From TrEMBL:
Keywords: Oxidoreductase
Record's protein name: 1,5-anhydro-D-fructose reductase (1,5-anhydro-D-mannitol-forming)
Ranges in a coiled coil: none
Gfo/Idh/MocA-like oxidoreductase N-terminal domain ranges (all copies): 3-121
UniProt superkingdom: Bacteria
Organism the protein comes from: Mycoplana dimorpha
Every GFO/IDH/MocA-like oxidoreductase domain range: 129-250
Short name of any one Pfam family annotated for the protein: GFO_IDH_MocA_C3
Gene Ontology MF terms: nucleotide binding; oxidoreductase activity
Amino acid sequence: MTRWGLIGASTIAHEWVIDAIRATGGEIVSVMSTSAERGQKYAADHGIGKSVTTTADLVGDPQVDAVYISTTNEMHRDQAIAAARAGKHILCEKPLATSLSDARAMVKAAEDAGVVMATNHHLRNAATHRAMRDAIAAGRIGKPLSARVFHAVYLPPHLQGWRLERPDAGGGVILDITVHDTDTLRFILGDDPVEAIAFSQMGGMGKAGLEDAVMGVLRFKSGVIAQFHDGFTTRFAETGLEVHGTEGSLIGRNVMTQRAVGTVTLRDAEGEHDLPLDHRNLYETALSAFHAAIAGKGRPSATGEDGIWSLATGLAVVEAAQTGRTVKIEPGL
């Protein structure tokens, strides 16, 4: 059994990750919050035996085997490096950091320590996206030519806070949502993006000059071009992902979500039909793979290197939106 420490008494841990850890055989022994009062209440609410106020106290605990980091983005680097040096396996929220140099330092620290490091890109665990990946790999749409991602949603009040107020923490829609688009496209296409162009928007939710919506295009190594629309401001939109090839199209609807829902339709010369899907909890799929990787059986569903790719793309989109230029995507791996 893997014993976990939570670095951050977060909403995402409360809503998704705590249950996924427990459902896949893990135990949560400690939680860290810089607020002793918040940490103690969080521990009591979630049946966690110990609450501490510093990263050092948590990673120094011999009862902790692995950590889940879900603090704000600017804190990830130091917390992940401290965990690696203490010999703890690491599951870190995206984006891994606010700069590529920090993200690379995190991955290197994990490699040097011989611990497993993963990025919590949940969407590649969806049955919908796995079905799309498998259909493309099997040649069912021929050569992929283009893709479209609709990931414009409404950011609910309980998640707003720093995402709309703190540029220093990596706030804004691009580092929150566009990084997910990138990882999902890389997973489905088996391809890497090489350049980005984008326009961002401030539609009244983002503060301190932070964008709350963005549209843009990524070009991939193979020549595939992918359009994306991400937002915090669209109350009534649905999400989707489409991939169009020389011999067919895959149409995913309601697929860019934390919930195990959505449909995928294949359209080709023979007509239109829905792909069979085995919907499972996305986070439980991720935690099962992570626990297996710790045991030396396979890899996490999204590695630290995957996290570097998505951050590099997000930062390129930020720069493209600010400058109006096409920006190369250079993860430095």
